[in-house]
Design a protein that fits this description.
The protein is α+β, with helices and mostly antiparallel strands. The chain contains 4 helices and 4 strands; from the N terminus they run ααββββαα. It is 36% helix and 16% strand. Strands 1-2-3-4 form a 4-stranded antiparallel beta sheet, with helices on one face. The longest helix has 22 residues. Belongs to the GSKIP family.
Length: 129
């Protein structure tokens, strides 16, 4: 199924990085490849499919994530220090979190996330009594 899922689109050639390497100590720089793995693990339960792209090259300053929403829509997400955005729509705003981005793209995600939260609260309530 991973092969069918690949919906990568090449990054825009004219994009230049605004990251100033001299302004940040190396220890403070996030590796976007590691961040992308964390993003996938955080929300995989609320989407049909999600994985770090195998065909678009991720680097320390950018990573690409393929996602299929519960509605069957497929997107290639770009993850940078600025946040996340749909890669196919380069004029769209960045979202600070994957939760915010998926909330705007997928009512099914919103419902699954809400249900998971309710289940967790119920579990906490049961354990507390």
């Amino acid at each position: 199924m991973l092969q069918e899922m690949e919906i990568d689109c090449p990054p825009e050639e004219s994009i230049t990085s605004t990251f100033d390497e001299d302004s940040v100590e190396l220890g403070d720089v996030k590796d976007m490849r590691l961040e992308a793995d964390a993003v996938v693990n955080d929300v995989l339960f609320a989407v049909v499919e999600m994985h770090v792209s195998q065909s678009l090259t991720s680097a320390s300053d950018v990573a690409y994530i393929n996602v299929e929403t519960r509605e069957g829509n497929r997107y290639c997400l770009e993850l940078t220090e600025a946040g996340l955005r749909v890669n196919e729509e380069l004029n769209t705003q960045y979202h600070e979190t994957v939760y915010s981005l998926l909330d705007t793209l997928s009512p099914g995600y919103r419902e699954a996330f809400g249900n998971a939260l309710l289940q967790r609260l119920e579990k906490l309530k049961q354990n507390g009594q």
